[in-house]
Amino acid sequence: MRRVVVAGIGQTVFGKFLHRTVRSLAEEALSAALADSGIEAEQIGVTYFANALSGLVTGQETIRGQVALRNTGVMGRPIINVDNACASGSTAFHLAWLAVASGQTDVALAIGAEKLTHEDKAVTFGAFASGVDVEERARLQMDAPQGHSVFMDIYAERARRYMAFSGATPEDFALVCIKSRQAASTNEWAQFRAPVTAEEVLGSRMISTPLTLNMCSPIADGAAAAIVVSEAFAQRLAKPRVYVKASAIVSANQDGLGKTAAERAANAAYEAAGLGPEDIHVAEVHDASAPAEIMLYERLGFAAAGEGVALLRDGVTSVGGRLPVNPGGGLLSRGHPVGATGIAQLIELTTHLRGTAGARQREGARAALAECSGGQLGADSALAAATILTNF
Description:
17% strand; Peroxisomal Thiolase, Chain A, domain 1; transport; Thiolase-like; alpha/beta
Protein backbone atom coordinates (compact mmCIF):
# COMPACT_ATOMS: atom_id res chain seq x y z
CA MET A 1 0.00 0.00 0.00
CA ARG A 2 1.23 3.49 -0.86
CA ARG A 3 1.51 6.36 1.60
CA VAL A 4 -1.37 8.83 1.27
CA VAL A 5 -1.28 12.57 1.92
CA VAL A 6 -4.13 14.94 2.79
CA ALA A 7 -3.51 17.58 0.12
CA GLY A 8 -6.54 19.84 0.33
CA ILE A 9 -9.32 20.65 2.80
CA GLY A 10 -12.35 22.91 2.67
CA GLN A 11 -15.77 23.31 4.23
CA THR A 12 -18.74 25.60 4.61
CA VAL A 13 -19.95 27.19 7.78
CA PHE A 14 -22.29 24.73 9.50
CA GLY A 15 -25.75 26.01 10.47
CA LYS A 16 -29.41 26.15 9.54
CA PHE A 17 -29.74 27.37 5.95
CA LEU A 18 -33.32 26.70 5.00
CA HIS A 19 -33.00 28.09 1.49
CA ARG A 20 -29.61 26.62 0.54
CA THR A 21 -29.33 23.42 -1.49
CA VAL A 22 -27.06 20.41 -1.16
CA ARG A 23 -25.55 21.45 -4.50
CA SER A 24 -24.61 24.94 -3.34
CA LEU A 25 -23.06 23.58 -0.14
CA ALA A 26 -21.09 20.89 -1.96
CA GLU A 27 -19.82 23.32 -4.58
CA GLU A 28 -18.56 25.71 -1.91
CA ALA A 29 -16.70 22.99 0.01
CA LEU A 30 -15.16 21.54 -3.15
CA SER A 31 -14.02 24.97 -4.34
CA ALA A 32 -12.32 25.60 -0.99
CA ALA A 33 -10.56 22.22 -1.01
CA LEU A 34 -9.31 22.73 -4.56
CA ALA A 35 -8.00 26.19 -3.70
CA ASP A 36 -6.28 24.84 -0.59
CA SER A 37 -4.59 22.04 -2.53
CA GLY A 38 -3.66 23.83 -5.75
CA ILE A 39 -5.12 20.86 -7.63
CA GLU A 40 -7.51 21.16 -10.58
CA ALA A 41 -10.86 19.36 -10.39
CA GLU A 42 -10.02 17.54 -13.62
CA GLN A 43 -7.05 15.87 -11.88
CA ILE A 44 -9.35 14.05 -9.41
CA GLY A 45 -9.58 10.42 -10.45
CA VAL A 46 -12.52 9.35 -8.29
CA THR A 47 -15.01 11.07 -5.97
CA TYR A 48 -16.78 9.60 -2.96
CA PHE A 49 -19.85 11.65 -2.07
CA ALA A 50 -21.24 11.24 1.45
CA ASN A 51 -24.88 12.04 2.16
CA ALA A 52 -26.95 10.15 4.70
CA LEU A 53 -30.29 11.80 5.40
CA SER A 54 -31.06 14.69 3.10
CA GLY A 55 -32.57 12.39 0.49
CA LEU A 56 -35.38 11.85 2.97
CA VAL A 57 -35.59 15.61 3.59
CA THR A 58 -35.29 16.90 0.03
CA GLY A 59 -36.56 13.93 -1.99
CA GLN A 60 -33.35 13.60 -4.04
CA GLU A 61 -32.27 9.95 -3.87
CA THR A 62 -30.00 7.47 -5.71
CA ILE A 63 -27.84 9.96 -7.68
CA ARG A 64 -27.22 12.49 -4.94
CA GLY A 65 -23.52 13.01 -5.70
CA GLN A 66 -23.99 13.33 -9.44
CA VAL A 67 -26.75 15.91 -8.91
CA ALA A 68 -24.80 17.87 -6.31
CA LEU A 69 -21.61 18.00 -8.38
CA ARG A 70 -23.09 18.20 -11.89
CA ASN A 71 -21.71 21.71 -12.47
CA THR A 72 -18.16 20.92 -11.32
CA GLY A 73 -15.03 19.58 -12.98
CA VAL A 74 -15.24 16.17 -11.32
CA MET A 75 -18.02 15.10 -13.67
CA GLY A 76 -17.21 12.47 -16.28
CA ARG A 77 -15.20 10.34 -13.88
CA PRO A 78 -16.45 7.96 -11.15
CA ILE A 79 -18.69 9.47 -8.47
CA ILE A 80 -19.59 6.94 -5.79
CA ASN A 81 -22.49 7.74 -3.46
CA VAL A 82 -21.85 6.82 0.19
CA ASP A 83 -24.48 6.44 2.91
CA ASN A 84 -23.20 5.01 6.19
CA ALA A 85 -25.23 6.93 8.79
CA CYS A 86 -23.30 9.51 10.84
CA ALA A 87 -20.02 7.94 9.65
CA SER A 88 -20.84 8.57 5.98
CA GLY A 89 -18.13 11.23 5.66
CA SER A 90 -15.59 9.05 7.46
CA THR A 91 -16.48 6.19 5.12
CA ALA A 92 -16.08 8.38 2.03
CA PHE A 93 -12.66 9.42 3.32
CA HIS A 94 -11.74 5.77 4.00
CA LEU A 95 -12.65 4.85 0.41
CA ALA A 96 -10.72 7.80 -1.03
CA TRP A 97 -7.69 6.79 1.04
CA LEU A 98 -8.03 3.20 -0.14
CA ALA A 99 -8.30 4.25 -3.80
CA VAL A 100 -5.00 6.15 -3.57
CA ALA A 101 -3.22 3.70 -1.28
CA SER A 102 -4.05 0.79 -3.58
CA GLY A 103 -2.75 2.60 -6.66
CA GLN A 104 -6.15 2.94 -8.33
CA THR A 105 -5.62 6.69 -8.68
CA ASP A 106 -3.17 9.38 -7.59
CA VAL A 107 -5.88 11.86 -6.56
CA ALA A 108 -9.21 11.15 -4.85
CA LEU A 109 -11.90 13.34 -3.34
CA ALA A 110 -14.00 12.67 -0.26
CA ILE A 111 -16.85 15.15 0.05
CA GLY A 112 -19.85 15.16 2.35
CA ALA A 113 -22.85 17.45 2.12
CA GLU A 114 -26.09 17.41 4.05
CA LYS A 115 -29.33 19.38 4.00
CA LEU A 116 -31.31 18.66 7.17
CA THR A 117 -33.33 21.78 7.92
CA HIS A 118 -36.97 21.67 6.87
CA GLU A 119 -39.95 23.85 7.63
CA ASP A 120 -41.48 20.84 9.38
CA LYS A 121 -39.00 19.53 11.98
CA ALA A 122 -40.89 16.23 12.09
CA VAL A 123 -39.48 15.51 8.62
CA THR A 124 -35.94 15.92 9.92
CA PHE A 125 -36.52 13.86 13.06
CA GLY A 126 -38.14 11.16 10.94
CA ALA A 127 -35.04 11.05 8.76
CA PHE A 128 -32.84 10.54 11.82
CA ALA A 129 -35.07 7.64 12.94
CA SER A 130 -34.07 5.76 9.78
CA GLY A 131 -30.71 5.08 11.44
CA VAL A 132 -32.34 2.46 13.67
CA ASP A 133 -33.53 -0.98 12.53
CA VAL A 134 -37.20 -0.32 11.79
CA GLU A 135 -38.18 -3.87 12.75
CA GLU A 136 -36.40 -3.47 16.08
CA ARG A 137 -38.15 -0.15 16.67
CA ALA A 138 -41.52 -1.78 16.08
CA ARG A 139 -40.71 -4.79 18.28
CA LEU A 140 -39.52 -2.60 21.16
CA GLN A 141 -42.30 -0.08 20.57
CA MET A 142 -39.79 2.74 20.13
CA ASP A 143 -42.28 5.33 18.96
CA ALA A 144 -40.86 8.41 17.25
CA PRO A 145 -40.63 11.02 20.03
CA GLN A 146 -42.14 14.45 19.66
CA GLY A 147 -39.73 17.35 19.23
CA HIS A 148 -36.43 15.47 19.10
CA SER A 149 -34.52 12.64 17.47
CA VAL A 150 -35.02 9.08 18.68
CA PHE A 151 -31.25 8.96 19.11
CA MET A 152 -31.42 11.35 22.06
CA ASP A 153 -33.51 8.79 23.94
CA ILE A 154 -30.89 6.17 23.11
CA TYR A 155 -28.04 8.46 24.21
CA ALA A 156 -29.92 9.38 27.39
CA GLU A 157 -30.28 5.75 28.37
CA ARG A 158 -26.54 5.21 27.82
CA ALA A 159 -25.82 8.33 29.90
CA ARG A 160 -27.91 7.08 32.82
CA ARG A 161 -26.02 3.78 32.82
CA TYR A 162 -22.70 5.60 32.66
CA MET A 163 -23.64 7.89 35.55
CA ALA A 164 -24.47 4.89 37.73
CA PHE A 165 -21.18 3.22 36.81
CA SER A 166 -18.76 6.15 36.95
CA GLY A 167 -20.23 8.77 39.26
CA ALA A 168 -20.48 11.29 36.43
CA THR A 169 -23.09 14.00 36.95
CA PRO A 170 -25.19 16.35 34.81
CA GLU A 171 -22.75 19.07 35.87
CA ASP A 172 -19.99 17.10 34.14
CA PHE A 173 -22.06 16.93 30.97
CA ALA A 174 -22.56 20.69 31.22
CA LEU A 175 -18.77 21.06 31.47
CA VAL A 176 -18.43 19.24 28.13
CA CYS A 177 -20.76 21.83 26.59
CA ILE A 178 -18.83 24.73 28.11
CA LYS A 179 -15.57 23.28 26.80
CA SER A 180 -17.14 22.74 23.38
CA ARG A 181 -18.33 26.35 23.08
CA GLN A 182 -14.98 27.71 24.25
CA ALA A 183 -13.27 25.71 21.51
CA ALA A 184 -15.80 26.72 18.86
CA SER A 185 -15.47 30.41 19.73
CA THR A 186 -12.29 30.52 17.60
CA ASN A 187 -13.63 28.30 14.81
CA GLU A 188 -15.11 30.39 12.01
CA TRP A 189 -16.89 27.32 10.60
CA ALA A 190 -18.82 26.47 13.79
CA GLN A 191 -22.59 26.70 14.15
CA PHE A 192 -22.50 27.87 17.80
CA ARG A 193 -19.64 30.13 18.90
CA ALA A 194 -21.10 32.07 21.83
CA PRO A 195 -19.96 31.02 25.33
CA VAL A 196 -22.43 29.18 27.54
CA THR A 197 -22.59 28.77 31.33
CA ALA A 198 -23.36 25.68 33.38
CA GLU A 199 -26.58 27.31 34.51
CA GLU A 200 -27.64 27.87 30.91
CA VAL A 201 -26.84 24.29 29.91
CA LEU A 202 -28.59 22.72 32.88
CA GLY A 203 -31.52 25.12 32.60
CA SER A 204 -32.18 24.55 28.90
CA ARG A 205 -35.17 22.46 27.86
CA MET A 206 -35.09 18.85 29.01
CA ILE A 207 -34.96 16.55 25.98
CA SER A 208 -34.55 13.12 27.58
CA THR A 209 -33.27 12.85 31.14
CA PRO A 210 -30.47 13.73 31.86
CA LEU A 211 -29.95 15.39 28.45
CA THR A 212 -30.96 19.01 28.13
CA LEU A 213 -31.16 20.80 24.79
CA ASN A 214 -27.62 22.16 25.00
CA MET A 215 -26.27 18.66 25.64
CA CYS A 216 -27.58 17.44 22.26
CA SER A 217 -25.97 18.03 18.88
CA PRO A 218 -28.01 20.41 16.73
CA ILE A 219 -29.67 20.03 13.36
CA ALA A 220 -27.32 21.50 10.75
CA ASP A 221 -26.70 21.94 7.06
CA GLY A 222 -23.21 22.03 5.62
CA ALA A 223 -20.50 20.43 3.52
CA ALA A 224 -16.86 19.42 3.91
CA ALA A 225 -14.30 18.11 1.44
CA ALA A 226 -10.84 16.55 1.58
CA ILE A 227 -8.54 15.72 -1.32
CA VAL A 228 -6.03 12.91 -0.78
CA VAL A 229 -3.09 12.13 -3.05
CA SER A 230 -0.20 9.71 -3.36
CA GLU A 231 3.08 10.69 -1.74
CA ALA A 232 4.68 10.98 -5.18
CA PHE A 233 1.95 13.35 -6.37
CA ALA A 234 2.29 15.39 -3.15
CA GLN A 235 5.87 16.28 -4.11
CA ARG A 236 4.39 18.72 -6.65
CA LEU A 237 2.47 20.56 -3.92
CA ALA A 238 3.56 23.21 -1.44
CA LYS A 239 1.41 22.18 1.54
CA PRO A 240 2.93 20.68 4.73
CA ARG A 241 2.63 16.89 4.63
CA VAL A 242 -0.20 15.31 6.61
CA TYR A 243 -0.32 11.54 6.18
CA VAL A 244 -3.20 9.13 6.54
CA LYS A 245 -1.47 6.70 8.86
CA ALA A 246 -4.46 4.40 9.32
CA SER A 247 -8.16 4.17 8.54
CA ALA A 248 -10.48 1.50 9.95
CA ILE A 249 -14.21 0.84 9.84
CA VAL A 250 -16.10 -1.87 11.71
CA SER A 251 -19.76 -2.79 12.12
CA ALA A 252 -21.59 -3.72 15.29
CA ASN A 253 -21.06 -7.22 16.63
CA GLN A 254 -24.08 -9.45 16.37
CA ASP A 255 -26.29 -8.89 19.44
CA GLY A 256 -23.82 -6.32 20.78
CA LEU A 257 -21.44 -8.95 22.12
CA GLY A 258 -17.87 -8.06 23.02
CA LYS A 259 -16.18 -4.69 22.67
CA THR A 260 -18.05 -1.72 21.21
CA ALA A 261 -17.63 -0.74 17.59
CA ALA A 262 -15.79 2.45 18.56
CA GLU A 263 -13.30 0.52 20.65
CA ARG A 264 -12.66 -2.07 17.94
CA ALA A 265 -12.27 0.55 15.22
CA ALA A 266 -9.77 2.50 17.32
CA ASN A 267 -7.80 -0.63 18.17
CA ALA A 268 -7.62 -1.58 14.49
CA ALA A 269 -6.37 1.91 13.61
CA TYR A 270 -3.79 1.88 16.40
CA GLU A 271 -2.47 -1.49 15.22
CA ALA A 272 -2.28 -0.41 11.58
CA ALA A 273 -0.54 2.85 12.50
CA GLY A 274 1.88 1.25 14.94
CA LEU A 275 0.75 3.78 17.56
CA GLY A 276 -1.20 3.69 20.80
CA PRO A 277 -3.59 6.06 22.57
CA GLU A 278 -0.65 7.51 24.48
CA ASP A 279 0.80 8.75 21.18
CA ILE A 280 -2.25 10.82 20.21
CA HIS A 281 -1.92 14.59 20.71
CA VAL A 282 -5.33 15.80 19.55
CA ALA A 283 -8.64 14.05 18.78
CA GLU A 284 -12.07 14.60 17.30
CA VAL A 285 -14.83 12.26 18.51
CA HIS A 286 -18.51 11.70 17.85
CA ASP A 287 -20.08 13.80 20.61
CA ALA A 288 -23.67 13.57 19.36
CA SER A 289 -24.51 14.08 23.02
CA ALA A 290 -22.30 15.54 25.75
CA PRO A 291 -21.99 12.29 27.75
CA ALA A 292 -20.85 10.45 24.62
CA GLU A 293 -17.62 12.44 24.54
CA ILE A 294 -16.66 11.32 28.04
CA MET A 295 -17.52 7.69 27.29
CA LEU A 296 -15.40 7.82 24.15
CA TYR A 297 -12.35 8.91 26.17
CA GLU A 298 -12.51 5.42 27.64
CA ARG A 299 -13.40 3.51 24.49
CA LEU A 300 -10.51 5.08 22.61
CA GLY A 301 -8.05 4.18 25.37
CA PHE A 302 -7.41 7.68 26.66
CA ALA A 303 -8.68 6.69 30.12
CA ALA A 304 -9.57 3.52 31.99
CA ALA A 305 -13.19 2.47 32.38
CA GLY A 306 -15.06 4.92 34.62
CA GLU A 307 -12.17 7.39 34.65
CA GLY A 308 -12.92 9.46 31.57
CA VAL A 309 -14.68 12.11 33.61
CA ALA A 310 -11.42 12.81 35.46
CA LEU A 311 -9.76 13.87 32.18
CA LEU A 312 -12.57 16.34 31.64
CA ARG A 313 -12.53 17.75 35.17
CA ASP A 314 -8.74 18.14 35.12
CA GLY A 315 -8.78 20.09 31.84
CA VAL A 316 -6.74 17.46 29.98
CA THR A 317 -9.17 17.44 27.04
CA SER A 318 -9.68 21.21 26.81
CA VAL A 319 -7.93 23.47 24.31
CA GLY A 320 -4.52 24.06 25.89
CA GLY A 321 -4.62 20.67 27.63
CA ARG A 322 -2.37 17.70 27.01
CA LEU A 323 -4.98 15.97 24.82
CA PRO A 324 -7.53 18.43 23.44
CA VAL A 325 -10.64 16.58 22.28
CA ASN A 326 -13.02 18.25 19.82
CA PRO A 327 -10.97 21.47 19.62
CA GLY A 328 -13.12 22.55 16.68
CA GLY A 329 -16.23 22.45 18.86
CA GLY A 330 -17.30 18.92 18.03
CA LEU A 331 -20.80 18.00 16.94
CA LEU A 332 -22.21 19.95 19.88
CA SER A 333 -20.92 23.33 18.73
CA ARG A 334 -19.44 22.97 15.23
CA GLY A 335 -22.70 21.28 14.25
CA HIS A 336 -23.69 17.92 12.81
CA PRO A 337 -24.66 17.92 9.13
CA VAL A 338 -24.45 14.14 9.13
CA GLY A 339 -22.76 13.38 5.80
CA ALA A 340 -20.18 16.14 6.31
CA THR A 341 -19.31 15.49 9.96
CA GLY A 342 -16.61 12.84 9.58
CA ILE A 343 -14.73 14.90 7.00
CA ALA A 344 -15.04 18.07 9.11
CA GLN A 345 -13.37 16.19 11.96
CA LEU A 346 -10.43 15.37 9.69
CA ILE A 347 -10.23 18.94 8.44
CA GLU A 348 -9.86 20.17 12.03
CA LEU A 349 -7.14 17.63 12.79
CA THR A 350 -5.29 18.45 9.57
CA THR A 351 -5.03 22.10 10.61
CA HIS A 352 -3.43 21.06 13.91
CA LEU A 353 -0.90 18.82 12.15
CA ARG A 354 -0.12 21.65 9.72
CA GLY A 355 0.27 24.04 12.65
CA THR A 356 -2.42 26.38 11.32
CA ALA A 357 -5.20 25.98 13.92
CA GLY A 358 -4.63 29.42 15.42
CA ALA A 359 -5.83 30.03 18.96
CA ARG A 360 -6.92 26.42 19.39
CA GLN A 361 -3.64 24.92 18.10
CA ARG A 362 -2.32 21.91 20.00
CA GLU A 363 1.35 22.84 20.11
CA GLY A 364 3.69 20.12 18.96
CA ALA A 365 0.90 17.99 17.50
CA ARG A 366 2.32 14.99 15.62
CA ALA A 367 -0.50 12.44 15.68
CA ALA A 368 -4.27 12.89 15.64
CA LEU A 369 -7.26 10.55 15.89
CA ALA A 370 -10.80 10.95 14.56
CA GLU A 371 -13.64 8.66 15.65
CA CYS A 372 -17.12 8.75 14.15
CA SER A 373 -19.98 6.35 14.91
CA GLY A 374 -23.23 5.83 13.06
CA GLY A 375 -26.68 4.34 13.49
CA GLN A 376 -27.88 1.96 16.19
CA LEU A 377 -28.16 -1.82 16.30
CA GLY A 378 -29.18 -3.35 19.60
CA ALA A 379 -26.96 -1.96 22.34
CA ASP A 380 -24.24 -0.49 20.12
CA SER A 381 -23.66 1.86 17.22
CA ALA A 382 -24.24 0.14 13.88
CA LEU A 383 -20.71 1.07 12.80
CA ALA A 384 -17.70 3.11 13.79
CA ALA A 385 -14.77 4.59 11.90
CA ALA A 386 -11.37 5.58 13.26
CA THR A 387 -8.71 7.49 11.33
CA ILE A 388 -5.20 8.39 12.43
CA LEU A 389 -3.38 11.28 10.78
CA THR A 390 0.26 12.21 11.37
CA ASN A 391 2.80 14.71 10.08
CA PHE A 392 5.60 12.15 10.01
